[in-house]
């Protein structure tokens, strides 16, 4: 329980009607979650405007309302607080309500189009191996020590984020590793969170359905770094040409990592095989069971975070060699007959290109690459033909199929993908609407030594069709097909 006057700090208040000397037991921005003694924060969101639900929130027990515009009719005994931005205020309210938990441990944020989940998952694993009690907020799962908590978003809402970090503090965590999405940054979900380090992986074509333009997408990502204090460390991937844009107006100490140029953390790939990577980091050799240049870059970022945190270099390098890939990230499923299956979350043009380029560099040349790929519904439509072009150009056989169609017609999505192909590429393309049948077809076409890539869903164990999530696990299905029970 907190007094309203104590949690309004940094809320950019314009006007107050009523007393702020109120005992508050809960902060809500969803009127359905309001209970007695709640503060309801009316946020004008992407799909719902919370100002339309102020009366409902009061009926359910809200004693105070934080909003950008007062309702026409004000109720007695209710405190109304007008602020410049309800979304921004929500983050600070939540942080204050939970006693600013991010200041009581080291929070490391990772943002970028690709690599966030892999880096955060392996940072959690690395620092746990180094002897720390850690927490993690990721697309796949939220975790506090050994306790796993279901994740519903890449980055949760501001109240949830602060609540989980507060639980980490209570559990004695030293570090929190967090994926930070562009949506979360744009929607102020991490306002009020203090980061000790932040990592930029890369930025490529994605989420333009939400941000509108690439410049706005970059602008959203930059917010993580411009929010850092001068005591924090900002680590940028210098192999991404947009990193100088990200580093503008950053007060934190700036460091870089690179596989191609001089940097604070310089990496080199010595060998890249299906068995793993042989690498050199700042002159020291290290082996990894991960595969591909993109994973070499991810490992280099992780190395940079650990060294920047003051960890012993030899111990970090030793533990790096034991790290495993995150679920659904270049996850291999091998058959006894020699077929190699790879399940990857690649759902952007750049990610798909990276995975197929990695396969191309490792293959001997005689084996076929069969790719199964789709595009999600209710998401950026402009990347659909690009995904199809990349898949068909870099594969010997491509099967276009359904991903998570959500509320869209899956056939219409496939039509948009195939619409980007010329006649030559169409000749080596099949379209099979049913995803399981598509994977079965890929398995039937594969001979010993061939490589099957199932792209797009990775760790997900469901398929979202018209708002209903049906059980669907690419890894499970592929494994059952190429390793049938006897």
Task: Provide a brief overview of the structure.
The protein is α/β, with parallel strands linked by helices and 486 residues long.
Please give a structural write-up.
By secondary structure, the chain is α/β, with parallel strands linked by helices. The chain has three domains: 2-97, 3-Layer(aba) Sandwich (Udp-n-acetylmuramoylalanyl-d-glutamate--2,6- Diaminopimelate Ligase, Chain: A, domain 1), CATH 3.40.1390.10; 101-320, UDP-N-acetylmuramoyl-L-alanine:D-glutamate ligase; 331-482, Protein-Tyrosine Phosphatase, Chain A. The protein is built from 17 helices and 26 strands. A hairpin with a 2-residue loop joins β17 (276-281) and β18 (284-288). α13 crosses α14 (410-418). The model has no long low-confidence stretch (mean pLDDT 94).
């Amino acid at each position: 329980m907190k007094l309203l006057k104590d949690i309004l700090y940094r809320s950019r208040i314009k006007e107050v009607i009523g007393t702020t000397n109120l005992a508050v037991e809960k902060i809500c921005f969803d009127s359905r979650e309001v209970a007695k003694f709640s503060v309801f924060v009316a946020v004008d969101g992407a799909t719902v405007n919370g100002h339309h639900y102020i009366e409902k929130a009061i009926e359910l027990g809200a004693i105070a309302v934080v909003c950008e515009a007062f309702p026409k009719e004000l109720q007695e005994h209710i405190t109304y607080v007008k602020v410049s931005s309800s979304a921004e205020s929500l983050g600070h309210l939540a942080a204050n309500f939970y006693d600013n938990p991010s200041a009581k441990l080291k929070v490391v944020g990772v943002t970028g189009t690709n690599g966030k989940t892999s880096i955060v998952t392996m940072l959690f694993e690395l620092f746990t191996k180094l002897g720390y009690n850690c927490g993690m907020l990721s697309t796949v799962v939220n975790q506090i020590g050994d306790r796993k908590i279901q994740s519903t978003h890449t980055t949760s809402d501001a109240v949830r984020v602060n609540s989980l970090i507060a639980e980490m503090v209570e559990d004695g965590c030293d570090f929190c590793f967090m994926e930070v999405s562009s949506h979360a940054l744009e929607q102020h979900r991490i306002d009020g969170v203090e980061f000790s380090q932040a990592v930029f992986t890369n930025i490529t074509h994605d989420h333009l359905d939400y941000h509108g333009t690439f410049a706005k997408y970059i602008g959203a990502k930059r917010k993580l770094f411009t929010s850092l204090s001068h005591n924090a460390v900002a680590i940028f991937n210098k192999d991404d040409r947009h990193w100088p844009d990200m580093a503008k107006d950053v007060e934190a100490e700036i460091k870089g990592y690179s596989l191609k140029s001089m940097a604070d953390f310089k990496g080199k790939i010595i060998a890249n095989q299906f068995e793993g990577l042989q690498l050199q980091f700042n002159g020291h050799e290290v082996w990894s069971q991960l595969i591909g240049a993109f994973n070499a870059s991810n490992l280099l970022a992780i190395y940079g975070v650990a060294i920047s945190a003051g960890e012993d270099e030899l111990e970090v390098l030793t533990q790096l060699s034991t790290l495993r890939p995150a679920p659904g990230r270049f996850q291999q499923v091998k058959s006894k007959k020699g077929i190699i299956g790879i399940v990857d979350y690649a759902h952007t043009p750049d990610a798909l290109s990276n995975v197929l380029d990695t396969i191309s560099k490792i293959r001997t040349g005689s084996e076929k690459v069969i790719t199964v790929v789709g595009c999600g519904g209710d998401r950026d439509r402009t990347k659909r033909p690009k995904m199809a072009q990349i898949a068909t150009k870099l594969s010997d056989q491509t099967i276009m199929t359904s991903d998570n169609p959500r509320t869209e017609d899956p056939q219409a999505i496939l039509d948009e993908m195939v619409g980007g192909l010329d006649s030559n590429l169409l000749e080596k393309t099949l379209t099979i609407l049913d995803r399981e049948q598509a994977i079965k077809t890929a398995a039937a076409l594969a001979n010993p030594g061939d490589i099957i890539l199932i792209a797009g869903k990775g760790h997900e164990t469901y398929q979202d069709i018209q708002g209903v999530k049906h059980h669907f696990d690419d890894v499970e299905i592929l494994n059952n097909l190429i390793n049938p029970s006897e």
